[in-house]
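haha ok so turns out i had the wrong file open the whole time. this is the CORRECT one, sorry everyone. sequence first:
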Amino acid sequence: MKNYNFICVLVLIFFTTSCNDDFVDITPLTEVPESSIWTDAGLAEAAVTNAYTGLGQGGYGTAMLSSTTDESVYTHAGSGINVVNESRANSANVGWIKGENNWPNLYAAIRDTNLAIEGLEGGDINNDNLKDRLLGEAKFLRAFYHHQLVRFYGGVPIADRTFSLDDDFNIPRNTFDECVEFIVAECDEAFDLLDGKDLESGRANGAAALSLKARILLYAASDLHDITTASANSSLISGFANQDLLGYTSGDQLARWDRAKNAAKAVLDYTNGYKFGLGSPVPFDEAKDNYINVSTARNGGEADILWERQFIEAAGSNWGGRRFGLFHGPNGYHNWAGNTPTQNLIDAYAMDDGTDFDWDNSDHNSQPYENREPRFYATVLYDGADWKPRTADVADRDPANQVQTGAYEVNGSGSVATHFGLDTRQSPIEDWNGTRTGYYVRKFTEPDPTHVDQTDFQSIPWPFFRYTEAVFNYVEACLETGDEDGARAWLNQIRYRAGLPAIAAVGSDLVEAYRRERQVELSYEEHRYHDARRWMIAEGTLGAPAGIINISGTLKPGANVTVYAYNTDNYDYTYTPGVLDPGFENRLWLDKSYFLPITNDELQANTSLAQNPGYE
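then structure:
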């Protein structure tokens, strides 16, 4: 056998050395030479489409960025979210970072865009319109991926070209200012290339380019990135040696706000949103439907989304982005309760007359879910909320199809017993998947009552940019530049659509009203984490204890209930706000959490990187 192998090797050597070179210079049938990609329109488009894979599932997933904020709590232990929320992150254990947002994955995505840009610029696509469109998409994506890095880490190494193994990878971080200007320039180029192009839904477009520019300039103008202001609020930033990685060490913050205002207004002038231009609040039911339509991108609500991550209809495809109801719905429906709203978020929703909810008001604390603003009912599942039909194995336990997150008395065999709600952690149905806060999220969940979240797939897109965000960005810039009338006018446009009256606040009260409005309207859309940090209010928001609710139902005299259903004729309900068990998560804010730590792996691979403050 050894001799046979030796003869085979000799034969192979003979053929590979004596045959014509053309014989062995064969392209595998399953591969395409790189040089061919950028001369073929179909292949080039496929290559640019591949650069979108860095977007992952958008903001969807079993764990969400909302649970690193005061919006929600992640139900399941061991995710690393508590490492972030307790300010225990370090370069050896960064805690939970959504895969699409971590350093190596974002740079891998940027490499895909660089390959596309260089291939298109050096290639020979015989269709200038297509070439410009693909180049615009790639430049936009390169800017978007850089912006993701910058808003988590501050200044990062700008990767505006591909790198080979022969390159020096010891590349220092660019300043925050340099990164912002790079992203803005990319957005400008992308807009020029994409404006007026006939684009498939879901691809980068002119409105997306303008929106990204407006967002990054809003961030750039904010207090966290004005080092004078940030240093006054944080001794950690004040003492950091590389402050230009975090923000502007010179220049005029007001001028930056004016620039952000102009960029946001450019979005508003370029396109339109959903049901803007109203002169008064719409009725309650219409307002609730408006919010559901926007969050599910249907019945005209898709007009508000300027760029989205779409999910195709084929069952099983893009699994993580199509199982929102399963991941986050009530355990009594065999769902997983992933990221459940906090009482902090619930309390942010106004009453239906626009006044604040107040636990010290006896009318409010005795019926906290009555007479709230319409967006509350379109966003949250609370105790007693009507929801979908229960699955067949649970239907006889809840014929009313209502969310149950409390503990209630029922009449047992001649005595009063306690019925723990079907959607609690004491439920007879998958108790380990019960909410820890007393709530579930409804937003982004398929509302069709025939859709079974446990088994069915949905195709609701993830909104990367909404027209409404651009309106908020413009309002904030107006406030910062002294244009309160302009701020109120645009803020009231959002409120009218939501069924709320015009706001008349001024000064700091107007700023607070704006921030509350932004928090509620954009909940679960990955804004709160960044907003609380850039406003430098994180200690009292992201670091505040996560609020929960405890609910009990006591039978009224003479009431006879054997199968529980929410009913104020039969029950007296008590609502007691509390905080999340510190044994599960004990939230703490330390100023190092204004920026993410760079991992040891990255620091060792690139010794020119400077670590962020608090992690050195």
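Residues 128-153 form the longest helix (26 residues).
again sry for the mixup
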